[in-house]
Design goal:
The complex is a heterodimer. Chain A is an alpha/beta fold. Chain A is about 40% helix and about 25% strand. Chain A has 2 domains: about 250 residues, 3-Layer(aba) Sandwich (Rossmann fold), CATH 3.40.50.410; about 40 residues, no CATH class. In chain A, the strands form 3 sheets. In chain A, strands 5-4-3-6-7-10 form a 6-stranded mixed sheet, with helices on both faces. A two-stranded antiparallel ribbon of chain A has the order 1-2. Chain B contains 16 helices and 37 strands. The chains are: A alpha/beta, B alpha/beta.
Chain lengths: ~300, ~700
């Protein structure tokens, strides 16, 4: 359990004050890890990764003698750690993720969550990869179990700005086609797309034997519609989609609509053995990580 | 059934009813823009609630508008009233009852109109609550009376009992003005109730602009005292003297003009004349519908001085003022000043001998109605002409300038002048000095022999001065007369009353101011004619004298209307004195006389009762012919019983909109309900409902 004093580690408002994403991820993970029993990673294996030329000081036993026979030069065999987990972290970077009513945007929250997950995974010597997408795949970093791989992931997250429209369902299908090995797929998105399309994509991951965790990120304002007065709502992705509404008049119905949407997603995910977590950006990050850890255990 | 407001100024608050709509429209214009990711959810929500949302929205708008309207109405405090409304509920009332006590109320409601009106006023007073205040004002008030609203009903009822029919017309300007003045201060419900027959006459000269203050918010209700059937509506319109002058023992010819206001002819109407309370003459007459009839009446006054006259019309079922007071001021003897231009030591040979005998045949001072005084021209300067009704110049050669001036003033004041020609008369002097009086210049003198004298050719018997000569005997006498000497003058047309056979004028007439001048071109004695020895001479001289004295002899005074101011003019000796006046109701009154144009003048305003007003004068003044009484009559048109219509009344009282209700409606009663409490309940319910809806939108 998390002690009260440690809750500050996960408060989105506190985290928003930490500009360095890597530091933010470590802050979160160290915070949560200090509160739980540390466990060793499951299983160990080595997997050939590449050759490099021998240099003095290298262990003699790691020289590839077959290569010496072929090329008449000394090569050292490089192995990477063989893990029992490959995690694909999929982060929605469409324009709708750039929304914040108070504190962190959904994208910043998603970045922090993704980086924290990557740190946690890599810390446990598992492989973590990153895919950012909008209506197309923006960036792909294949899963690796290297300790210093976090830097690469964080660098990619930090240098990416949200934009473009969402097409979650199609993108998921595209990503599923590129994943060769089974693992865990973590989707961080506001899922503002057609539910059927999204679920179709998620089910494709499951079909290929992946475990899937969906972090459905929504701003608290998207859940509550707390505005007052007559408002012209302009859609963040589709410029032509504008609507004038009195939030007070429609609030109750709006909440029903959102509840119906999230309920549908939750049910459909549950039916497909997909772990679904609805997370408000005002929710401390430990809940998101706890969800992952519970799955991990 | 009606609704009125105690504080109608708050009805302007109804304008605020548009505020919710304006706020709604302004809010629609003031849009906040928000970039939002989940617009699709908003769209879905809107689609889902669209119809019910709009309905609730409009209901909310209607509720808010209704709340503002109800608040404005609540502050204006509406009162719902059915029937005549006898102040049941609705808070303390300040009421002014205007009771029409004009003369026309005598005939309203078949003679019980005024009684009904008082009953209605009594009903209103007894219907007042303990905290209500009221005042009762007769429409005959002068406006000077101290008036106030009173709580005490018994005092109000006592005041009501004391109100009697007045002889005058209702003065609605003063009464309404006083009502608004009384209701100016108190807050709460205010009302004016006018109980009247709504006779047209009282409203003839009414104008709202004459009122100092008007409050259109104060409801005015006119309670009409109605007539059950249309009566014979008739009244004495005028009385006037028909003869020439009013003297003692002379025939007094009067004309009474009777007007018929009804649509049917009035037959067998008895018109009676009484002088000093004694019946003198009466006639039966008929008056056409909507027309007038002039009735001639005759009497003879045996005493000089002022007499109280009364004309009365009598017939069953008449409505309207049936009598008319008037004053008759009779002169005793006609004082005639004879100026003898050719006096002789022998009386018979004097120029005025025959003339004197014609005016006073017996030669005694009290045996004739004429009192001739003979003087010579030299005595003219010391003679006061105003003491004489007629002045006769007999063959006077010339006149002093000062006398000519006095003579002109005398004539302008209504005096009579008779000029006889003669051999001494200087034509040039008359043509120059007396030109304004004589008007027709004297050309020359014509003298002949008696045997060749001219006959009198034409005589205008239609002229009032010569009408009395129409008798055949007198005509024969005229024809037998001869004129052989006369002054020839240039005159023609109507001014020639008598002419000779040769066409030369013998008697001509002129007017100077209101005075009359007759010039007889021949002599007053037998020097140029034989008329003095003819039968016609005496009646002709007396007739001419009567005619000439007409403007100065006696007076018939038709009087003034009730409420009018009487201007009293007395000899200069009364300047600074107070004259006592006895009113018809025996109430004493006084008037102070001030100097005005060599006379004593005073104004008496308190002419509120019809009848004869007696002035307390000394015997000398009475004998000198100064009137010692005057008559006051109800306004003639007060007898006209036509009513003002409701529309005309509303036009007269605009911007006030009076309701006209019948006395029967008042007697049936009515209820009054203060709508403030129900409105407050409705307002609270509306606000609660608005709050409930607002929570659900």
């Amino acid at each position: 359990m998390i002690a009260d004093g440690q809750k500050k580690y996960f408060d989105p408002k506190v985290l928003a004050g930490i500009s360095n994403l890597s530091l933010r991820a470590r802050w979160v993970v160290e915070g949560i890890m200090s509160g739980i029993h540390r466990s060793r990673s499951k299983g160990f294996s080595v997997e050939f990764e590449e050759h490099r030329e021998y240099s003095p000081g290298d262990e003699i036993r790691r020289i590839d003698w077959k290569a010496l026979g072929k090329f008449d030069r000394y090569f050292i065999k490089e192995y990477e750690d063989e893990t029992n987990l490959r995690a694909y972290l999929l982060l929605d970077s469409s324009a709708s993720m750039d929304y914040s009513s108070d504190g962190m945007t959904k994208f910043d929250y998603g970045c922090t969550l993704t980086a924290s997950l990557a740190y946690l995974i890599l810390r446990q010597q598992d492989a973590a990869g990153l895919v950012t997408f909008s209506n197309r795949i923006e960036n792909i970093i294949p899963p690796r179990a290297k300790r210093d791989y976090l830097t690469q992931i964080v660098h990619a997250l930090e240098n990416h700005r949200p934009g473009g429209e969402t097409n979650v369902g199609r993108i998921l299908e595209e990503i599923a086609g590129q994943i060769k090995r089974r693992g865990i797929v973590v989707l961080v998105s506001d899922l503002l797309d057609e539910p059927a399309q999204i679920l179709k994509g998620l089910r494709l991951f499951r079909f290929k034997g992946n475990d899937v965790i969906v972090f459905h990120l929504l701003d608290q304002a998207e859940l509550d519609l707390p505005f007052e007065g007559n408002i012209l709502f302009e859609d963040m992705e589709a410029a032509s989609l504008n609507v004038i509404a009195d939030p007070r008049a429609i609030r109750q119905t709006y909440r029903q609509v959102v509840e119906e949407f999230t309920s549908q997603m939750r049910k459909e995910c549950h039916d497909s053995s997909i772990d679904y977590q609805l997370i408000s950006t005002s929710t401390p990050l430990d809940r998101a990580l706890a969800s992952y850890l519970s799955w991990r255990e | 059934m009606s609704v009125f407001f105690l504080y109608p100024i708050f009805l302007f608050g109804l304008i605020a009813a548009s505020l919710p709509l304006l706020i709604h429209l302004l809010n629609r214009r003031k849009l906040n823009r928000i970039r939002f990711p989940a617009v699709r959810f908003i769209l879905m929500s809107q689609k889902r609630i669209s119809r019910s949302y709009r309905l609730r929205h409009w209901i909310l708008l209607a509720l808010r508008t209704m709340a503002v309207v109800l608040l404005a109405l609540l502050l204006a405090n509406p009162i719902f009233q059915t029937g005549a409304g006898l102040f049941a509920g609705g808070g303390p009332v300040s009421l002014v009852i205007l009771l029409d006590n004009s003369l026309s109320m005598t005939w309203s409601g078949d003679g019980i109109g005024f009684k009904q009106a008082k009953e209605a006023a009594r009903l209103l007073i007894t219907s007042l609550g303990d905290s209500d205040r009221a005042a009762i004002l007769p429409t005959s008030i002068s406006g000077k009376e101290p008036l106030r609203l009173k709580l005490e009903k018994d005092v109000l009822l006592k005041e009501l009992d004391q109100i009697e029919i007045a002889d005058g017309t209702a003065n609605f300007s003063i009464a309404l003005g006083k009502a608004y003045e009384l209701l100016g201060e108190p807050a709460g419900q205010k009302e004016i109730r006018l109980i009247s027959d709504l006779g047209l006459t009282g409203w003839d000269n009414f104008s709202m602009s004459s009122l100092k203050q008007v409050d259109p918010a104060i409801p005015v209700k006119a309670i009409r005292v109605g007539r059950k059937q249309k009566p014979l509506n008739i009244a004495v319109k005028e009385v006037r003297a028909a003869g020439h002058g009013i003297g003692v023992d002379l025939p007094l010819h009067l004309e009474a003009v009777v007007a018929n206001f009804s649509d049917q002819e009035v037959k067998d109407l008895l018109v009676q004349l009484s002088i000093d309370g004694q019946n003198r003459d009466q006639k039966l007459t008929s008056v056409p519908p909507r027309g007038d009839t002039t009735v001639p009446l005759q009497t003879r006054l045996s005493q000089a001085g002022s007499h109280a006259g009364l004309l009365t019309i009598k017939k069953d079922g008449l409505a309207g003022n049936a009598s008319m007071h008037f004053g008759v001021h009779a002169q005793d003897q006609l004082r005639v000043l004879l100026i003898d231009g050719d006096p002789q030591t022998s009386l018979v040979q004097s120029e005025t001998f025959f003339l004197t005998r014609a005016l006073n045949p017996a030669g005694e001072s009290d045996s004739s109605q004429y009192l001739p005084t003979v003087i010579v021209p030299e005595a003219l300067s010391g003679t006061a002409l105003d003491s004489y009704q007629v002045i006769v110049l007999c063959n006077v050669a010339t006149l002093p300038d000062a006398f000519v001036s006095k003579l002109q003033n005398y004539l302008r004041g209504g005096g009579g002048l008779l000029i006889f020609g003669g051999d001494r008369l200087q034509a040039d002097h008359y043509n120059t000095k007396l030109a304004p009086i004589l008007q027709s210049p004297i050309r020359d003198k014509k003298q002949g022999l008696e045997a060749t004298g001219e006959k009198i050719g034409k005589i205008d018997l239609t002229h009032p001065a010569l009408q009395s000569l129409s008798d055949n005997l007198l005509q024969e006498s005229i024809k037998s007369a001869r004129v052989w000497g006369y002054s020839r003058i240039s005159a023609s047309g109507k001014s020639v009353l008598m002419s000779l056979a040769n066409g030369d004028p013998l008697v001509i007439e002129h007017r100077v101011g209101s005075g009359r001048v007759i010039f007889i071109t021949t002599t007053a004695d037998r020097d140029w004619n034989d008329l003095p020895v003819k039968t016609v001479y005496l009646p002709m001289i007396q007739s001419l004298t009567n005619y000439l004295a007409g403007g100065k002899r006696g007076l018939l005074d038709g009087g003034i209307s009730v409420g009018d101011v009487k201007q009293i003019s007395l000899p200069p000796g009364y300047v600074g004195k107070t004259i006592r006046i006895a009113k018809p109701n025996k109430q004493p009154a006084e008037v102070v006389m001030n100097a005005a144009q060599e006379r004593a003048a005073g104004s008496f305003e308190d002419n509120d009762v019809a009848g004869i007003y007696q002035l307390a004068l000394t015997r000398d003044d009475q004998e000198s012919g100064t009137p010692r009484l005057y008559a006051v009559n109800p306004p003639f048109l007060e007898s006209r019983l036509e009513e003002i219509s409701e529309r005309e009344l509303q036009a007269k009282l605009s911007p006030v909109r009076p309701d006209v209700i019948s006395i029967e409606t008042l007697q049936q009663g009515g209820t009054r309900r203060d709508l403030a409490l129900p409105l407050l309940g409705l307002l609270l319910a509306t606000l609660l409902l608005e709050g409930w809806f607002a929570q659900r939108i």
